[in-house]
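Issue 218. Parser rejects a valid record. Input:
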Amino acid sequence: MADLVCVGAIAGAYGVRGEVRLKSFCADPAAIADYAPLSTEDGAHSYSVSLTGQTKNGFTAHLGGVQSKEAADALKGVRLFAPRDRLPALDEEEYYHADLIGLEVVDTGGTVLGHVKAVMNHGADDLLEVYGPGMKATVLIPFTLAAVPTVDLASGRIVADPPEGLF
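Output the parser choked on:
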């Protein structure tokens, strides 16, 4: 498990005074400011965060050290990370998406199906996007107890019981 977890991304500048549009990936979106200072993935830059308002699909915010529209525009697309120890503890059967990506996926007989490429949510339940050798396209598995009975982070694998015909 990585020491850093992606908690948000900068969507671009907001106004002319250095504010940014900020997308939050947190369960409680406004909590992103509680995990500051946030850093870039490589750790080269770190920013304090002060939320200033809301926009469609996100917030407006001041980031420490960003003083102009040009500086804010230059950060568009930058993902922001927080150290794992600053994030809330998870209940049993809860996982950070970052911990699931890359895990090996096997069926209930132990046959390797592939690896988790991404975790998506399109409104109902989470979906695991699985890719593997010999697959022409990725496969989406519902991330439910019925379809994914076991997640073993320690051994780096997921046991899946996908619906018939999915693979």
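Fixed in the parser; the record now loads. The longest helix spans residues 69-74.
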